[in-house]
Structures are given as C-alpha cells and as structure tokens.
Amino acid sequence: MEREGKWPPSDLSYKENLIGTLLAIFGNLVISISLNMQKYSHVKLAGTKDPRSYFRTKTWWLGLTLMLIGELGVFTAYAYAPLSLITPLSAVSIVASSIIGIIFLRDKWKPKEFLRNYALSFLGCGFTVVGIYLLVTFGPNAHEKLSGRNLISHLMGWPFLLYLLVMIILFCLLLYFYKIRKMTYLGVILLLEALLGSVTIVAAKGVSGMIVLSIQGNLQLAYPIFYVLFVVMVSTAVFQAMFLREVSELYDPSQIASVSYIFSTIIAVIAGATFYLEFNGADALHICMFVFGSCIAFLGVLLITQSKKRNFDPYITMDVFPGLGSMFVKSPVQPDLSGSFSYGTLDHNAHPDVLLDPQQEPNSSRPVMTSKQD
Fold first, then answer.
1. Would you call 30 helix, strand, or coil by DSSP?
2. If you write DSSP's letter for every residue of 182-209 in order, what string do you get?
3. End-to-end CA distance of the chain
4. Fewest CB within 10 angstroms: 188, 272, 339, 350, which?
C-alpha cells in the first residue's frame, strides 16, 4: 500500500493537503454564491412580475453553472486531502451565505441597531473561522495514492468492517423508529441522512482519487471497485437527498443546517478514520486540537443559524427590489413555500404562519392563515 505513515507527514503530504484544502474552500465559496444568485433570480422575477420561468433567466443558469463548478472543486478536493479535513470545510458556505445576506440588507439598520441585532451572527462567523483554522492546522495529513488495490485493502480491513456493521445496525434501528414508529424527530432524520452521507463521501473520495490517478497516467478505471464505488456514491446521494427533502417539510432550515453540519461532520470524521485510517500515527496534541477546532466550528455554525431568533435576517429580503413592497409582506420570498431546503440558508420566512392569498388585492392587509409544523 502506497501510504506515508510517518509522523510528522512529508512535504508531499502538506502539498497535497494544501491543494485539497484550497479546492474545498473555493468550491464551498462558489456554491454559496451560486445559491444566492439563483435566489436572486427568483426574487427579482417576483418583484418585476416577469412572466418568464426562473430557468429561462441568465442569472439562474449562471448560478447553476457556478454550483456545478463548486461541486466539482469539492469532489476533486477529496482526491488530495483527508475526509476529516474536507467535510468540516462546508462551514465556509454557511459563513459566506451570512455575509452575502448582510450585504443585501444594505442600510436597513442604523450602525448601533445593526451591531445590536447582528452581533451574534458576527460572533458566530468569528468562531467558525477560528475553528476552520484549527481544523486545517491540526487536521490529519496522511498522504495516500487511492489506487484500486489500496481501496480493496481498505474495504477488507477490520476497522471498516466493524464500522460498517455498527452503521448498518444503527441505520436500521433509526429507519424503524422513523418509518414504523413515526418518530419524526429532527435528530432521527438527520442521523439517517448523515449515515448515508458518510458512505457517499467515502465512495466519492475513492472515485475522485482513482480518476485523478488515471488522469496522471496511472489508469485505474479497469478496476471493478471503481464502478462499485460510483454506484454506491450515486445511490446513497439520492436517498440522502430524499431524507433532506422530507426533513425540510417539517423543520426550519436554520435548525436543519446547523444540526446537519454537526452530525455529518462527526460521522464523516469517524468514517475517514476507520476506512482511510486518516489519524493513523497522529499524536495526541494534534487529535485534541482537531477536536477542539471542530467544537469551535460547531459553536460558530450554531450561532450563525440560530441568530435569526434574535432578529438576524441574513437573507435576500423583498425590499431589495422596487415594487415588491406593494406586492408582498416584507419577508424573504421562496419559490416553494412548502419549506424546500434547496437554497440552504436562503430558505427563510420571518413569518411562516402568515402568507398572503395570491387572489387578494396587493394593498390589502388581510392575511390568510396557514399552518406549518415546526
């Protein structure tokens, strides 16, 4: 197995980690920008009463193109850096979305009011940045060429087989409570999604690594394990999206974003440590600082996503565009008001229980009450 197990890692490991880290940060930033651009397209259409569908606008397609570029960057990053390092960097997207949302608020608040209302979010961004710095600095630096032989060796290793057994048992138990006992708790659904997500990224790292090696001249596509991992990656991603869609119909997006990030990061780190042995040879100091950095990042994400309960609104509001004030109440708009999670932190409604009837007059203040399960 072509693995550098010495500690501290070699210069090649640091170089590969740096490439993977930069690709992951770039990818998450671009994804955040793309989601905001697509949201911008929807809101602008609503403000101008444009009869066109959103997918006929250049802005929406530009957002989709940027999203594909961002996802490609994150996918490629798996080939260069450990899962335990790449997965927590998804917090970059949450921080970026908050900052972009604040930019759209323009001069809505006076400086003192702005600081009083949004201090919690700025504090969360600060904690998240510090946590990400610690994660990158003290994260695993094990370097490995993900060839077909190495991946098969990992699959046959007892640490991963034990992890897989525990994961299958836990997944079946959670699925029983969710589907049979109808326990639709947020933690239950997001744990199911996180368990599937850990399998998705384990497979994605293998597929990405073999593609990169093939591009470099060491052809790996002849190994059957490549196609097995590809099928596993796609199928688990589809089911993962199904769980996310179901939970988005029951809970607030800010709760989903924070809890999902925490669960997904913890389980992904465990998966990387058992399958790819990413912490093999790491000393106690690096492991402790990595755990500490993860906790700081978790706290930061919680502060960002929960700050809207203290009048934080890091989203595109309707008063950004002319004409919207006479059409809707001043709250963010979402194409699918059923609670779609498609736009991440942008899917937010400050008054989820009060919606205007599309048939009533624009200047009428008579609301139509609808219910939404929290």
1. helix
2. ----HHHHHHHHHHHHHHHHHHHHHHHH
3. 50
4. 350
State which amino acid sits at residue 43: V
Report which of 162, 137, 152 is spatially closest to residue 1, judged by C-alpha positions: 152
Contacts of 22 (CB under 8 A, 6+ apart): none
pLDDT digit string, tens, across residues 282-324? 889 999 999 999 999 999 999 988 765 444 343 433 333 333 3
Cα 113–Cα 114–Cα 116 angle in degrees, nearest 5: 65
Q: What single-letter amino acid sits at 126? A: G
Q: Which of 3-9's residues contact partners 24+ apart within 8 Å by CB, and which partners?
A: 3/142, 3/143, 3/144, 3/145, 3/150, 4/142, 4/143, 4/144, 5/142, 5/280, 5/281, 6/281, 7/281, 7/282, 7/283, 8/141, 9/141, 9/142, 9/143
Phi, psi of 313 (to 5 degrees): -140, 70
Q: Which backbone phi and psi does 368 adopt, to 5 degrees?
A: -110, 125
Comparing CA positions, the residue from 87, 56, 95 lying closest to residue 200 is 87
